[in-house]
Design brief:
The chain folds into two domains: 199 residues, Gcn5-related N-acetyltransferase (GNAT) (Aminopeptidase); 266 residues, Carbon-nitrogen hydrolase (Nitrilase/N-carbamoyl-D-aminoacid amidohydrolase). Helix content is 28%, strand content 24%. The protein is built from 14 helices and 21 strands. The N terminus is likely disordered.
Amino acid sequence: MSKQKEELEHRLKLRNVQLSDYNDIRELMTLIYEQKGMTYTREELKNQIKAFPEGQICIEDNGKVVAVALSVVVEYSQFGDSHTYDEITGFGKFDTHDLENGDTLYGTEVFVHPEYRGLRLGRRLYDARKELCENLNLRSIIAGGRIPGYSKHSEQMTPRKYIELVKNKEIYDPVLSFQLANEFHVRKVITKYLPEDKDSKAFATLLEWNNIYYEKDEKLIGNSKSIVRLGLVQWKMRRFNDVDDLMQQVEFFVDTVSGYKSDFCLLPEFFNAPLLAGFNDMDASEAIRNLADYTEEVLSRMRDLALSYNVNIIAGSMPEYDGKKLRNVSYLCRRDGTTDKQYKLHITPDEQAYWGLQGGNGISVFDTDAGRIGILICYDVEFPELGRILAEQEMDILFVPFWTDTKNAYLRVSTCAKARAVENECYVAITGSVGNLPRVENMDIQHSQAAIYSPSDFSFPHDAVIAEASLNTETTIVADVDLDLLTKLRKMGSVRNLAQRRLDLYSIQWKRK
């Protein structure tokens, strides 16, 4: 058999280290570290495995260990940033391991056989460590990293300057470059970490990888949800005799989405517009002000539905009139009985001309038991500044109740909603109304296709659409969104629209308090 064929027949296996691996590990460490006096004894390896067997990981090839990663769990505040390798490892005994009180997975060693470095085994070991850190609900991984390339530059620059040039890829360091590529950041430079490490001039980088899923005080019940179920109502405009008639239809849909254990129920903008038919003898501006007289009663009944059906309701939008200003408002009725509201800020020319609507002056992110949400009513989603302001307040889901009469109007809303999902790394749920309302001025025809949009990256649907309703048909959408995927995207996405903004060049400022 040729040497080339032998090299192709790898049988790699990732597993935990066993004491029987000692000879392979010593041979490997001797090959890499002998001149630095950094090999473990059999007794030290035995202690390490006994202290924390899950944290000692290796990769074997055809039964022979070719890569190793060792670690302990420590309560990091007991050591601080100025520790030495011997202090945090208990001089290699790992008696510092403290799984009960520890909050940090401390990486003590990673080494790969030189002949295997082209197979990216180090990356596999780092990924296994990250998985272990997440499964143990630890805050972070911290490690002291050698900078073996520094000896060649120590007379020309400080360690800090060296690290900066490695970050900018002006210099390649065989250890630090790899760690930076694996999403670690340099916490600080430490001295005398490994006094015998001449290549690093006894300097080391204190590196950290943060576990984005870490829960400091995880509760047995009542934790924040990661999988959130959205229920969207694509509402048909029809004649209703009175508020009781309207709310009977509303309750039907709330009952429907609640039956699927939805966390949210979203209704369209001006879902109560059919009640305008009772004011056909008035002009449009007077009729809409009379419609506003029903808003308080509808809100009260929406609050009761949220409680009785155990679902957070975004009550589309309704007109509000205080005798001076007519505004368009969306109410959030939480299932705990509390409410909040969001005014429509931007008024279309048509709404101003027919009704005299005025815009609100504030915008908020609302806390719920299923994530932080924002609400933008119809036209507001076409202004990207608003979505960005909400995203800066850590919004997870943006709800957009809308009313559009024609396809081009709908496309403005839906296209902008898709853009808000991408640029703000959030989910966007939109719904409108369908059908028609004869003899109701300015609300006569409807066009809608309710949908839930996601960011566009590997963890999400290929077309960035979670779900989509049938066009111009009264129906519902019920679908799940994963908030953990947003967390992952914001830290590790192919692109990171929020994190990579050039805030040194521009910003968005909310002027009115």
